[in-house]
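Translate structure to sequence.
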């Protein structure tokens, strides 16, 4: 194999590892921002939810952002549907109100879990594969170096050290790429477990609160309906005044 081909393969390996590094740090940044937003929104909604006087007032909160808020919103929508009788009679909606609420909350929690776990498989893959990719580049580089040495017919240190030292750089780069990926993966796995435990506790508390209200949440009356009723009352009053004026005339 020619020196040019060996060098191209080693350089290609290094570029692959650089690409892995870019992907790793991009995911670390994205997941870090995601978890900061999750912690922020969960903290705000949790404070507002438990500050509400009752479950009905909690259902009328204006901000539903973050995993906990979306789980709560799913619960409120389910309670309103079961109270108004708008649920469809199919297999998805079978069971009593508590069973339906448990199912809906669990489904939403699974969606939130999938969202926070996205990208972690890539980090795990990079952390596992990068050292072997670097090792492949090193082995290939050493093979090329040994071939060149055999052709030159000299095995002195100044001839051997340079090519083999360059080949070993690939292994070092592979390890340097793998370490941040593994650390980030373990960190985010731990953070995901905290978020999941928080969602699980909140869902259990939500079901207990709903049980105290007999799983009934009233749909808030639209503001336009109240305005319409006020307008009808004013119109009726105005009509009565006109009739009285006509009778006097």
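Result:
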């Amino acid at each position: 194999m020619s020196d040019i081909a060996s060098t191209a393969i080693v350089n290609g390996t290094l570029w692959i590892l650089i690409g892995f590094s870019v992907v790793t740090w991009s995911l670390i940044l994205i997941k870090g921002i995601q978890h900061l937003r999750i912690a922020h929104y969960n903290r705000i909604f949790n404070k507002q939810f438990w500050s509400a006087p009752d479950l009905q007032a909690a259902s009328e909160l204006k901000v539903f952002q973050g995993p906990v808020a979306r789980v709560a919103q799913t619960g409120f929508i389910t309670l309103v549907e079961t109270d108004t009788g708008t649920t469809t009679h199919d297999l998805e909606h079978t069971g009593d109100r508590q069973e339906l609420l448990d199912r809906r909350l669990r489904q939403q929690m699974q969606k939130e879990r999938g969202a926070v776990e996205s990208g972690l498989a890539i980090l795990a893959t990079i952390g596992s594969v990068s050292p072997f990719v670097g090792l492949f580049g090193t082995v290939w580089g050493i093979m090329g170096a040994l071939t060149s040495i055999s052709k030159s017919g000299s095995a002195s240190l100044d001839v051997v050290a340079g090519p083999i030292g360059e080949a070993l750089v690939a292994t070092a780069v592979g390890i340097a790429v793998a370490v941040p990926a593994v650390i980030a993966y373990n960190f985010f796995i731990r953070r995901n477990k905290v978020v999941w435990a928080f969602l699980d506790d909140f869902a259990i508390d939500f079901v207990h609160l709903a049980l105290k209200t007999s799983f009934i949440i009233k749909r808030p009356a639209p503001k336009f309906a109240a305005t319409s009723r006020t307008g009808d009352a004013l119109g009726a009053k105005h009509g009565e005044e006109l009739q009285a004026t006509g009778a006097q005339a």
